[in-house]
Amino acid sequence: MTMKNFIEQEKQRLQEALHWFNNRGSRMTVRESGDLFLDTLVDSFTVTRIAPHFDTAGNHLRTDFWLLWKALGYDEGFQHAHTIKVVDVRVEDTLMAEHDGKEVEGWLIVELTDDLGRIHHVEMIEPVSEPELAADWQRWIAYRQKNAERFHRIDAQLLEEHLQIAEDWS
User: This protein's superkingdom (predicted)?
Assistant: First the structure.
């Protein structure tokens, strides 16, 4: 397997793990030095770049990755779309899902630690126990679908900008 193929497969694996968050909605809290920094609903997560780590024998140890996340309302300004560099992942719960015609293990609850030490705790919205959040998510999806052409342009522009941010990250 070439390095390029490995990178493509690893990036796809990570993107597939985000399936439930992107399809059912998620709530994310961010803690910095133990203090709550942010509590928001997230529209979507996109893996934009990866940096695999190998030992001296060439065995894959872990993968750092750059993640574009967009909060609900991201159409109101660039401040609602962010790229983080994830350096540690702690998965708390998963559920099998069908993604692009194949079975994948999707995260339900995960903690992502970024390169600044902030903890991003992400949970899929549970409609039974969080009906208000689920309703907010559904209203957002309906709004996004109603304005599909506008969001297509916004999404393309944000992806281009955040791919460059990830590429330029040192």
Answer: Bacteria
Render pLDDT for 57-95 as a digit per residue (tens, 0 to 9). Answer: 999 999 999 999 999 999 998 899 999 999 999 999 999
> How many C-beta neighbours within 10 Å does residue 91 have?
13
The model's pLDDT over 85-112, given as tens digits with 9 standing for 90+, comes to: 999 999 999 999 887 788 999 999 999 9
In the chain, how many domains are there? 1
Alpha helices in the chain (DSSP H): 3-17, 19-24, 131-146, 148-168
Q: Using an 8 Å Cβ cutoff, are 89 and 70 in contact?
A: no
Q: How many CA atoms lie within 13 A of 164 on its CB side?
A: 5
Q: Are 75 and 44 in contact (CB under 8 A)?
A: no
**Residue 97 CA to its chain's centroid (Å):** 16
Model pLDDT for residues 110-125, shown as the tens digit of each residue: 999 999 999 999 999 9
Q: What does the alpha-carbon distance between residue 76 and residue 144 come to, in Å, rounded to a whole number?
A: 12
**Secondary structure of residue 143 in the 3-state scheme:** helix
Which domain does 9 fall in, by range? Answer: 3-168
